[in-house]
Amino acid sequence: MHAASAFTLREDEVEISAIRAQGAGGQNVNKVSKAVHQRFDIRASSLPDEIKTRLLQFKDQRISADGVVVIKAQQYRSLERNSFAAMARLRELIAAAAFVPPPRRATKPTRGSQQRRVDSKVLRGKQKALRSRVGDS
């Protein structure tokens, strides 16, 4: 399954609220809400069921126990850029859940590689045997 075409994220399912950013910001830091708190309920979303289950199985600190993704974005000094950044992070998280790695096919080592492995083991054993004392055996 291709990750990009597997899902469409509807903007009306994402709840965005403006909050005050932490850290440096000068005189404006306590007056203007520039950071973004984004909430996305996985269970109530329109995502396909297999993506929902994979998302809920993620061990990610941004996903709460009741299945809500909470993303805080405060990297930029504008509210609009922070909301775009939060949306991009949510899309990355969902794309990671949408990606299904191809199943691994078990293979056997070739006869030549098996022989090279045994030969190197024998060679290492001979080298170690040469390190022992002459009288010991």
Name some characteristics of this structure.
alpha+beta, three-stranded antiparallel sheet, 3 helices, 36% helix
Describe the structure in your own words.
The structure is a single chain. With 137 residues, this protein is an alpha+beta fold. The protein has a domain at 11-98: Double Stranded RNA Binding Domain. The protein has 3 helices and 3 strands; from the N terminus they run ββαβαα. It has a 3-stranded antiparallel β-sheet, with helices on one face.
* Helix and strand composition category: alpha+beta
The CATH topology of the domain at 11-98 turns out to be: Double Stranded RNA Binding Domain
Strand order of the largest sheet: 1-2-3
CATH architecture of the domain at 11-98: 2-Layer Sandwich
Largest sheet: 3 strands, antiparallel
Mean pLDDT: 80
Summary?
By secondary structure, the protein is α+β, with helices and mostly antiparallel strands. It has helices spanning 49-57, 79-98, 111-131; strands spanning 14-19, 35-41, 68-73.
